[in-house]
Structure formats: structure tokens, C-alpha cells
User: What shape does this take?
Amino acid sequence: DSEGNTPAGFAVLDAKDFSVLGRWENDGDGVELMYDFWYQPRANTLVSSEWAAPNTFKDGFDPADVAAGKYGRRLHFWDLERKAKTQTVDLGDDGHIPLEIRWQHDPDSEQGFVGATLSSNIIRFSRPNGHWETEKVIDVENQELGGWPLEGGVPGLITDLVLSMDDRDLFFSNWLHGDLRHYDVSDPEHPQLRSQTWLGGLLGRDGGHPKAEGPLNGGPQMLQLSLDGERLYVTNSLYSSWDNQFYPGLNGWMTKLDRQADGSFAVDPSFFVDFTKLDTGPARPHEVHLPGGDCTTEIFP
Assistant: This one.
């Protein structure tokens, strides 16, 4: 709400001047938490995910807030026409902080993926028998690191994912580990790892970039894939207070990976944007979108 507390909801904005027109949902109960959403018109369904109330995350991450239930772990499914919630699925311990949602681009599909950020799992959702179901299809294991203050080791922290237009390639970023992974998901129930690229991170496996001045700080965060599936863009800033907590003094950068002859992806050694050297002063890059469309802007009726 306006005070940074729960509950959450959908705001409808005027497309020309971005003034707030009101709430979208007709469901009086609404939801406590919100983050991302994606919809599939032919399935008459919108799915939304959960982060936390702004007052919980705005000053940084406190693991005690997870134990207190202040961070989300549920997916909500909505009837597009009625603008009402039809089902909620609790992801349990496998699904703490489910952020980015990627429905398959096939307009007849009734399945997709969500990244459970803190649990560091990729969750598949589907509707095989008239009800929405979820299953964990990729599990990124925590890694031990000396001096790490939290119990259980360092989570990958899956902060973004993107799905190719043909629904065959899934990419996601492990912001704390520092790796960007590419999976073949032509069989969505059984993803297969195709390639893995290290860019910064806390584990000391940084692959670096020839145009960077020293090691990369931060880790791969927001991703964007070109419509032809050939170019993958990567930035390194998550959220300023979290940047400062996990990567003090983070310097912003963006790079690009290109598809190779064997279908894997590798860093373009000629493409690197250093956001500390902007004429307007240093900045931290987040979202990437491409002129003419990209793989997170296309939804088909």
C-alpha cells in the first residue's frame, strides 16, 4: 500500500500519461504479496508471484524475515475475464521468493516456469487436469563459502530467467554464485544443461571480460534475449540496498553472450558497457529491452 505494507494488488495505468486509473482485480480478498505476472489469453489465465512488502525488502535482506513469513512462496492464478483469483499454490520450502514468471510463448500452452529466488529452484507450472500444479525441475545447490553469514551456505539466488520464442532454450542467472545457465527445455519436465558462463559472483570463479578494468563485481542479474534467440544481454544490478549488502561498492556493467555453432552461448569479447563512465555519472543497470521486441515482451492472443 502507500505506506509500504501489505496487502498487494494490480494497478491499472493510463498508457499515455501513466496516471493511475484504479485496481484491476475484482477479487475483494486480493493477495497479501505481489511481484511479477504473466498471462495467456487462450488459457484465460494470469499467474502472479510474490516478493514481500516494500518495508520488508527496501533496506536489505534479513533472513529472519523469511522465518517470520514476510517473504512469499506462492503462485496465484487468476481468471482474466472475471479478474478474479481462481487458485493459489503454496510452493513450500522449494519455492521461497518466487519472482520472475515465464509462460511458454506457444499461445496454446498451459505451462511455464518461475524462478524461486531464495530456494534457487526452477519451478514448472502446468494445468494437466483442470487444476494448476507445480513441480521443481531444476535445483541449484547452495555452496559453502568462508565468512558467509547465513546458515546453509550461499544460495544461487535466481533473480531472472528468459525463455526463447520457440520455447526450447531457458536461461537464468544465479546472482550470488555468479553463473548464467542455459538449459534445453524442449522437454519442459526434464531440462538439460547446455552451457554455463561465469560473470562475477561471490564464489571466485569469475570468467571476467577483456574490456573490464579488473574482475567483474556483482553477478549476472537481469537477462534479455533477442527474438531470433541469438543474443543474450546481461546486467548486474538487482536492487540498490541488496547490491550494497552483498556487493559493497558495486559498479554497474552490461555485456552480451552470442549463440555459438554448437548451440551453446559464450561472452562477446567486444561488447561491454561500463556504467561507471556515463557522462551523467555512474549508474547501475537493471532491465533490458530491445527495439522492435524481445523475448519478454511478446504475448499472443
